[in-house]
Write a structure and sequence with these properties.
The complex is a heterodimer of chains A (113) and B (112). With 113 residues, chain A is mainly β. Helix content of chain A is 0%, strand content 50%. Chain A is globular, with a radius of gyration of 13 Å. Chain B has 112 residues and is an all-beta fold. The chains are: A mainly beta (113), B mainly beta (112).
Chain lengths: 113, 112
């Protein structure tokens, strides 16, 4: 199993550009989520999904969109990048919404200039 | 409401013990602990549930004081491999799982 994979690993964007961060898992997990981690800080939940076709907002959803058309994939779209979105983005998955153990991907380091 | 972790940083020698605390102003259903090594993704350590049930798979122990809404992570006889940043995550109830709120982390450095 590859676990949770994320692409790209690094990305530099200019203010106003849009892009999609990819996340995929091969564990047949129902639950997937996106977090951002700013330097020296904890993880902030952006959006999450409890199953294909179902998504909901986390703590810091503004400026981000998600969709979940398949169990495996959960892309995160930045609509119009801003310097405040410079961060490391982690995707995570767990067996279902009640599972406590989340498996994290390797992260995407995003810089917005 | 974000949980508060203390201390922010700890420096130890190999073999010494450490305690990391995680406090919440809200009544908690569960507390979970993760460790993140520099430049890597967080890795799950253990979960503590209201009522005392504890699940984990590392040789690290923890407690959950429901009266104080506080959890403590105990690292005994620390090894170099224990170095990293420890995060606690909290859930207020189990019905809307997924909405875990994380603290800002405690950085543990173990020196030879």
């Amino acid at each position: 199993n590859a676990g949770v994979t994320q692409t790209p690993k690094f990305q530099v964007l200019k203010t106003g550009q849009s892009m999609t961060l990819q996340c995929a898992q091969d564990m047949n997990h129902e639950y997937m989520s996106w977090y951002r981690q700013d330097p020296g800080m904890g993880l902030r939940l952006i959006h999450y999904s409890v199953g294909a076709g179902i998504t909901d907002q986390g703590e810091v959803p503004n400026g981000y969109n998600v969709s979940r058309s398949t169990t495996e994939d959960f892309p995160l779209r930045l609509l119009s990048a801003a310097p405040s979105q410079t961060s490391v983005y982690f995707c995570a998955s767990s067996y279902d919404r009640y599972s406590y153990e989340q498996y994290f991907g390797p992260g995407t380091r995003l810089t917005v200039t | 409401q974000q949980p508060v972790q203390s201390p922010q940083a700890v420096i130890l020698r190999e073999g010494e013990d450490a305690v990391i605390n995680c406090s919440s102003s809200k009544a908690l259903y569960s507390v979970h602990w993760y460790r993140q090594k520099h430049g890597e993704a967080p890795v799950f350590l253990m979960i503590l549930l209201k009522g005392g049930e504890q699940k984990g798979h590392e040789k690290i122990s923890a407690s959950f004081n429901e009266k104080k809404q506080q959890s403590s992570l105990y690292l005994t006889a620390s090894q170099l491999s224990y170095s990293g940043t420890y995060f606690c995550g909290t859930r207020i109830h189990n019905t809307n799982a997924g909405k875990s709120t994380f603290g800002d982390g405690t950085t543990l450095t173990v020196k030879p």
